[in-house]
Amino acid sequence: MNEPIVIVGAGLSGLRAASLLYSQGINCNVLEARGRIGGRILSEMALDRPDLGKFDLGPTWFWPQHEPIISHLVNELGLQTFEQHTNGALLLEQSLNEPIQRHVLPEEAVEKSVRLVGGVQSLIDAIADSLPPSTVKLNTCVTAIQMNDHGTTTVEAVLGDGKKKTIRAKAVILALPPRIVAQRITFSPSLPTEFMASLVDKPTWMAGQAKVVAIYNSPFWRDDGLSGQVMSWGGPLQKIHDASPSTGYGALFGFFGIPAKIRQEMGEEKILKLVVDQLTRLFGPSAEKPISLLYKDWSSDHETAVEDDLNPLTKFPKYGQSTITGVWEKNIIFTGTETSFEHGGHLEGALQSAERAVSEVIELL
């Protein structure tokens, strides 16, 4: 049969699965609902200032000493890395009414991580460049997957212009957050009830979060003996890290302690003002006027989050592969960081799950 393997989702898992399939001579198509590749990986430039570099509004770093798959791939693709800056004191803000504390952590307390020159998007672009032209179809939103009485699988999608498209597939790799699959794609015949419940039960990693990057002319906090790391209960940012690129400019990024629903009610303008006020409070007047502010609220991203993801997590999600049985057992394969038991939530988990999915496809063929 000449039908391709259809991969739904052009994030890290989907693109890596496609590159591995093509390396084995297996034809595939990648369908992506967004108008860009990368999924939750997003490296952006400040408006009209490409000289500042790119800044990650999604995942930022990885740990080579613990994550061999991404380390090997980065080396194989010839991508440049640099060590995440952690030298210096950490700031601790327990409340707005208490003095800000400085703590110098023991050297072994902070595990060294590395970042990619040009942001994590450079990894996405390098993998995409290894694929034949027209492999990835953007603005192609999969709405239904059907199997007929003869076992033939078809994928239905809506294109950016509203037209519908049907593609026959040998098998389908779903490289999407499990909750997106459960709520946005119709299956005929239906997936088992227990299996659907397992998809809904897996929170999408970082879907309820937002990230902000404040860019400066230099990482001035380092001159004050600070690492850029902050733990704050004063808010709005709960965790802050040095996000300075390899270009010489400075940057700080932070994650919010404000729940998603409240952020959406407040609006971006008010949130960014609170961010600058907090950075000025923590790092002094030099932080008062950033060159640029980049902001991404993933909870408002339709291709990432569903309503359930707006509820704050109370513990780290339990990730791993859900086992599907019945007629779909050999025709649908799930991948993505949420399907990785060991590295769920990490870039390593996304890549590990892609390797597993491709192994399953090869076994099927």
TrEMBL record:
Protein known as: Amine oxidase
Q: Which residues form the Amine oxidase domain?
A: 12-87, 111-362
- TM helices/strands, residue ranges: none
Q: What Gene Ontology molecular function terms does this protein carry?
A: oxidoreductase activity
The UniProt entry's sequence similarity note says: Belongs to the flavin monoamine oxidase family.
Q: Which residues form a coiled coil?
A: none
Under the heading Pfam families, the entry gives:
Amino_oxidase
